[in-house]
Amino acid sequence: MNATNVSKTILDRLADELSDLTPEARKAATYVLENPRDVGVSTVREIALAAKVKPNTVVRMARQVGFEGYEDFRAPFRDAIRSGAADFPDRARWLQDISKSGDLGGLYADMVRDVMSNIEDTFAAISTEDLKTAADAIWKARRVFTLGVGVNNSVARNFTYLASTGMTEFHAIPRSGSTPVDDLAWADDQDILIAITCKPYRSEVVEAVSIAKEQGLTIVALSDSPASPIIRMADHGFVVSVDTPQFFPSSVGIIALLETLLSFVIAVASDEIPQRVETFHKRRHQLGLYYAEDK
């Protein structure tokens, strides 16, 4: 049972026992039932103040539903926030609460664990055959458009930059001053769109994927759920794990998957691509773009 389900179970139990609580404890319980997100980011004093009761009343309420105290009661709600079951502001407040409590070592451990598990979980659900099929489609396409907005814009541009060391028709969109749908205006069934978005899904990405599908483009989608709107429209869909204690989805799994996908594209590409990559880097050396100690 995940943290979100656990916190819901607690709320259900609290609602069932509401009539058995003292009037003051009932006030505290009512506040929790009406504002469950506050529990994971608030101290016992903050909940008491908001519910207009004393802190020890909140503690008694927690004990009434089987917990030793408020901190035990709050833990599943904090875990639900960490696993992404709350919105960005709540998760940001939770991070500050960790700092105030002096538990940054726990945050560090959570970050390291999630970075590693995101990569493991992402690749555990993806077969080499799925990657090769997508790579074949990318290599055969006339043009490859990679779409990401917000934090995923830099991810899309990084993928495009790496691809451009050996290939020429890779384009990160939206271009500066443009929109995704305008950048795809003249694309057709000879082209491919790689689209990236995670909850909360960006409307301009979903719209661009829908329009690209109508224009006949092949769609490669990277998102955080099989139910994602762009995954449902994709010819090649890859679900990535983005869990993090941070207040925004982790990019680690997305970056790792794109790097792997690019390596597959190079692997299925024609023989001149490795030579072009070598030529690209030789040129950079000749132009002095790499630092040399012996200058």
Automatic annotation (TrEMBL):
Key words, A-Z: DNA-binding, Transcription, Transcription regulation
Q: Which Gene Ontology molecular-function terms are recorded?
A: carbohydrate derivative binding; DNA binding; DNA-binding transcription factor activity
Organism of provenance: Pararhodobacter oceanensis
One GO process term, biological-process aspect: carbohydrate derivative metabolic process
User: A Pfam family this protein belongs to?
Assistant: HTH_6
The protein's name in its UniProt record: Silent information regulator protein Sir2
Top-level taxon: Bacteria
What Gene3D superfamilies does UniProt report for this protein, alphabetically? Glucose-6-phosphate isomerase like protein, domain 1, Winged helix-like DNA-binding domain superfamily/Winged helix DNA-binding domain
